[in-house]
User: Fold these one by one.
Assistant:
Number 1:
Amino acid sequence: MLINPVLLKLEKEVALQTVLDAAETDQLFACDFGIIGAKHFVEKPWGYERDRVVNIDHHALTAVMRRQISSTNLALRYVSQNGIAQRGDTILINHTDCDSILSAAIMCGHLKSSPELGETAIAADHIGEENATADLLQALDEKRDYQFSLRNLRLLMAGDSLDATAKVLLDKRLAQRAAAKELVDKKAFHLQNGVAWIELESAIDDAFFSALLPDAMVILLFSPRPREARKWNVKARLGIAAHPGLSVEQLIKPIDGNFGGRWNAGSNKRGGSSVPPQEYAEAIVARLTKSEK
């Protein structure tokens, strides 16, 4: 009998004790969320281990994870060497985007392992290129419902009609993808020394733009901060042209104390910025140029 994942409260990083307290089972597989201090656990080809916990996750702040890899790829590695989780084990996730759903489904045995699933997660997490499976699962993330996402993924794979709610959410995402492409086609982005930036009327998912702007090392999206005049929300993402070792957080944090995220993406949504977009972008260009030298 296959097991089902347990959905934890959404947190950027989870304490090890929270994971241990989730269930008194033989093993706990924490999929696609960071555990505080995981970089000090025992490193494995599929992530990090300590006590009863196997952290199958690509968010750890370690050199090996600062590349285009996903938790789905790590789950595929685990299953290829050890098999799926067994009855008596517990699978944990704390969000339900593409990578979380796929990594958990692989570990549970709900999806058959295949390289295509790893490619799908990379498309969702890093490249942003159009991918039917990735777009569906990213669209359904807001439902926070593993079974709902898995059911509609199976409908998609079988070529059957999606649930009505899933269809609405997918159409919404595809409309955003089309809007992103239109912005690029209209040459609405400024591109200066590897930094592509744009001033928007409202926010849009930055994940779409890496594939659309292949010459960019850094992509910046500025949108007005609601109810705060002359302040900006900034989303930033490394582009495909970024050199190995470049970290968007290390690049931006010194000029924007509200910025946070990971090596390849982040935002300043907690406090915004009062620096005008062009001035902000020019400061990033200057820092990027210095780092390149």
Number 2:
Amino acid sequence: MTQISFFHGARDRLQAAAQWVNTAYSQNTSVLIYAPDEAHANIIDRLLWTQPALGFTPHCRVGDALAGETSILITSTLDSHLKNHVLVNLSNNIPDAFERFSKIVEIIDLQDDVKRPGRERFRFYRAQGCVLESHDLSKEIQ
């Protein structure tokens, strides 16, 4: 059963995602960042070069020559068969074949164009019987 972690109330969705990915990296968690919007993929790529403040989070794109050796990957499609990764969904849609991932992280910011589809995904996942957890980022320092 897929576990879905919703992090809502973020001031900046991509910044919050980069922070979460850095924490996951420090815990040796393999992460696949699904960013179908190329502009978002470029921004998250840039943010990971500056996370943490005095370092960076090692990462690359799925098609890169180092992808097989890198635990943090960015992709614009979910065609690959990467199953042993936590999926960070930066799209506003339910990821294709979401059930192949043991865990999905959804980062929801305060913008209506992100909140509304996020609520729809929450209802969908609940109807599918996924294990859901919710974290309010608005109560944390971002």
Number 3:
Amino acid sequence: MVMVKMPRFSEKKDVVIDEQSGLMWTKNANLLDFPMTWEEALAAVKEINRSGLYRYQDWKLPNRRELFSLMSHEMINPSLPRGHPFANVFNGYYWSASTCMRLPDQAWYVHLGGARVFKGMKYGSYMVWPVRIAENHGTGRFFQTGQKTCFDGGGHFMDCHGSGQDGEFQAGIPHHTPRFIPDGDCVHDNSTGLTWVKNANIAKNPLDWKSASDLVSHMNMENRYGYNDWRIPGIGELESLIDLEHHTPALPAGHCFTDVQNFYWSATTSMYDTAYAWVLYTVDGAVGVGYKELPEFYLWPVR
């Protein structure tokens, strides 16, 4: 029997449904034409809802995980999946509706040229790409960011109601409760199905990328903790650990990991320059790159 792979994106005139995430995006990725501050972006999305853009009134500024769900780390300029149907993609930064909890006068944005996830002052000017959850897709097919608190452009606490922020919608699938189940030297994530080493500093010091790979291979040779299929996590797997309601580290409350470090290697090579690999910064949850030959990042094995 031949299995037919269904296309990821479904086009419906002016909108595109991502069947992988359950999200509907405007086909025009630069619908509002020019960059805006964070508060202007939130206000602009409210205005397009009042106008009933494409017959919908529930558009929103995407939260960080929604925007990140579009990224392909195999492509650059833009870092969208091969064959995507979007038009007018700007190969620069796009705002998310998620605030940086440690520095609440800053919000998260994603770079569409290369998939970098970083934070910037809310008075900065970046692009806006509205999203909504498509009909018949429930709460979507992505996990919540964890953010429940809202802040204004100056970083002051505010009521989430009517804000249009991540903390108001809390969109996505809720994580399992309990999420993390300790099992000896391992921790099982009930949400993603991944098993992590409980000690998040297994090498005791930062490594270069090859040394991290060599250590994982050695773990598998000796059947460490009863398993022989450990690996360096992909950048999406690392990012799945992040909870945007917390910082230092930006991990879910009550996690049972020990000796969590500030930055970790992923197994994902950067397509901008293959001498670099993607890395996760756990203080706030930023996603950037590191030079493979330098021993500057830590290893957190997964299976």
